[in-house]
Amino acid sequence: MPKKILIVGGGFTGLTAALRLSADPDLSVTLIESAAQLGGLAAGFPLGGTTLEKTYHHLFLTDTAILDLVKELGLQDQLLWCDSSMAIFRDGRIHPFKSPLDLLRFAPCSFPGRLRTGFASLYLKHRKNWRGFTRQTAHAWLTRTCGRSAMDTIWTPLLKGKFGRHFDRVSMAWFWARIHIRANSRSGGGGEKLGYFRGGFNAVTSALEHEIRRRGVVIQTGATVEKLLADERAAIVNREKVAFDFCLFTGPSASLARILPAGGKLDEYAAQLRRIEYLGAACLIFTSDQDLGDFYWINVNEPEAPFLVFIQHTNLVDKKAYGGKNVYYLGAYLPPDDKTYLLPDEELTRLWFAYLPKMFPGFYPAQVGERHVFRFRAAQHIVDTDYVEKIPDHQTPLPGVFLANFSQIFPEDRGTNYAVREGETIAARIRREAAR
Ligand SMILES: Cc1cc2nc3c(=O)[nH]c(=O)nc-3n(C[C@H](O)[C@H](O)[C@H](O)COP(=O)(O)OP(=O)(O)OC[C@H]3O[C@@H](n4cnc5c(N)ncnc54)[C@H](O)[C@@H]3O)c2cc1C
Hints:
Layout: E1 3-8, H1 12-21, E2 27-33, E3 44-47, E4 50-53, H2 64-72, E5 79-83, E6 86-90, E7 93-96, H3 100-104, H4 111-126, H5 138-146, H6 148-163, H7 172-183, E8 193-197, H8 202-214, E9 218-221, E10 225-228, E11 234-237, E12 240-243, E13 246-249, H9 253-259, H10 264-274, E14 278-288, E15 297-300, E16 309-312, E17 326-334, H11 345-359, E18 368-381, H12 387-390, E19 401-403, H13 416-435
Parallel strand pairs: 1-2, 1-13, 2-9, 6-15, 13-19
Antiparallel strand pairs: 3-4, 5-8, 6-7, 10-11, 11-12, 14-17, 14-18, 15-16, 16-17
Helix pairs in contact: 1-8, 1-13, 2-13, 4-7, 5-6, 9-10
Bound molecules: flavin-adenine dinucleotide (FAD).
């Protein structure tokens, strides 16, 4: 009898694990996803005749795990490498921020602050050892290294945008990884290249789904694993008992804590999972005939701005893919109990659109076509200076139950690349356990 594997979560981690586990003829794999569709945080929705991610997504040249998978799935022709262009909105102006020269011209920051920021970025690009950074906060290191003016105009707004009130707790090791990886994602001395798929990331999700179904994986969407049982290897899925030999949970750590049974070591493990704090993400996507400039990505570094980032997706990918419309994202990380996060879609749209004329005085709401708001409750975890001690083990104290999710990725930022890497690592481990 093949051993039964239950995978909880149909994001990139769960789908990759399903692909690897289903290669083993001694295993029978079922994948349960509570959403109506697969893809998790990288899931798409139909737009302009194709599929677009509900939250902005791209790849870096350094994302080798997902790039290898894309090749294996025969999708390399669908992968486009596009020129990225970045800017910062500050002091009422959009400042290009693509090159060292742009940094030198970045007027909101003092000249010594610009020079110090340039040297700091160069240092982080070439430094290989991140462990010495683990216990320092990015805020303290950057303040010391780049000075007050660079903090006020560049770094503090970025840290606040990503981590809200936790901005001064974030580990410098995480920040090192952001700069180090990004700086090395440049092609042979040219500008930054970002990867995107014809048909969006859904091209990968669909290919994974197709292949794992072909290999016999049973996929149930719209089904939630509500409880893991204490005395037998089984879970409650939509009120029904489902037996397994091994279970892989790929949702947020706090969600696993909620479905674990109580008692002894499990209580300690659940408490450790709950120590990982998450922020939610809200994204407003709109299409328009209006072209709002040349940049793909604009960090909004004004203290009173209601969102963190403005993205003109069709400056990365040709608008022909979306029926000739420009496609925009506005995004913010917010606690899921924050009043802005909880606003009805129409009010959030009104609030964020009201800010846009400050960035683009000619912004013309009448030209906006489609608009969509998406929210994810557990979108970004807080990687503070004792985060290494918080990282949960893959093996839970519940026999046969494993955890693989983005809270185990450190110091790198979470991403589909690391989800693929984690999915592969955990699948190999479960295969070894199952073979015993
Ligand atoms: C705003 C934003 C921007 C991003 N930008 C990028 C980017 O540019 N490039 C990039 O590579 N990555 C990006 N990411 C990160 C990337 O989306 C994630 O790292 C990756 O998708 C995580 O995959 P995962 O499978 O580990 O988790 P998830 O995608 O979270 O999947 C977990 C799944 O488990 C399901 N689940 C949870 N609990 C249960 C349960 N009890 N029963 C059934 N199902 C359950 C959830 O519904 C979910 O679908 C971004 C993320 C966000 C939020």
